[in-house]
Specification:
homodimer, about 130 residues, mainly alpha, Multidrug-efflux Transporter Regulator, Chain: A, Domain 2, 2 domains, 6 helices, about 65% helix, DNA-binding
Chain lengths: ~130, ~130
Amino acid sequence: MATLSSSYTIGTLARAAQVNVETIRYYQRRGLLPRPAVVGGGYRTYSETDLARLRAIKRAQHLGFSLEEIETLLSLNEETDRVKARNLAQDKVSLIDARIVQLMEMRNALAELVDCCRHGDTAAPCPILRALSA
Amino acid sequence: MATLSSSYTIGTLARAAQVNVETIRYYQRRGLLPRPAVVGGGYRTYSETDLARLRAIKRAQHLGFSLEEIETLLSLNEETDRVKARNLAQDKVSLIDARIVQLMEMRNALAELVDCCRHGDTAAPCPILRALSA
DNA sequence: CTAAACACCGTACTCAAGTACGGAGTCAAC
DNA sequence: GTTGACTCCGTACTTGAGTACGGTGTTTAG
């Protein structure tokens, strides 16, 4: 019943999507997830559609998209907006590439200092600290 | 006179270090940069030492350290704290490595979708959007 | 029938590294 | 001798993605 029930409270939806209840409310405030109509005593009822959307958000996050970008992505039409989606994705790839290059530069500079510290003159002052202040 | 003067106001120091005045004040509030004594009419006077420290902070930032870590690093002794400095640097290298791996996973997944979108059946629904919602 | 668990909502707080604002005092140039 | 640029300081705002809190109403299990 957990994964195939068609109706959720916010709590069961949160557990099903592996997300915090507050996160769902936050997405609603952002307009990323609809606030379903209240039924009966003032509780909102969620559907499989809401669960699917939460999962799509998580997948997009794992691909590196921000919530704002995800809002755009999820508003696109699968049939007619292929180019838009592809452009968004391609831009993101470029951005990630740039970030990777930057991180690799950091990493290499730092690793060299560590090496230098490990194999250099043990009596000399720390090469890492010297590199910072020189 | 710009780079070799030994006395600065906060504004000239900021220009010399290529940093915003507010950033200097922020570092002072954080305790990362000392607040020099006021002289004369209530203005603080900065020295080459302050400029050197600002530059060290920027270098450390470029290597990926946070201000909190930089505070620790800059409190270390070049002679006696080699091992501590090296451990901090090595930990940072590992962290950067992990982040790079994560970004490469994103990048590859995303690039594959883009490729799929570019060379796949142009009549079919967008593979990127389908990947999100499926 | 009542106590625990849950839901509702608005508001405020978190982290990091700043940036911006506002009011008051000071210094230099014309 | 005043205008404009600069400094002082505390406080508040920014971004992104949530998390936490507080008060009130509801549902469910025993």
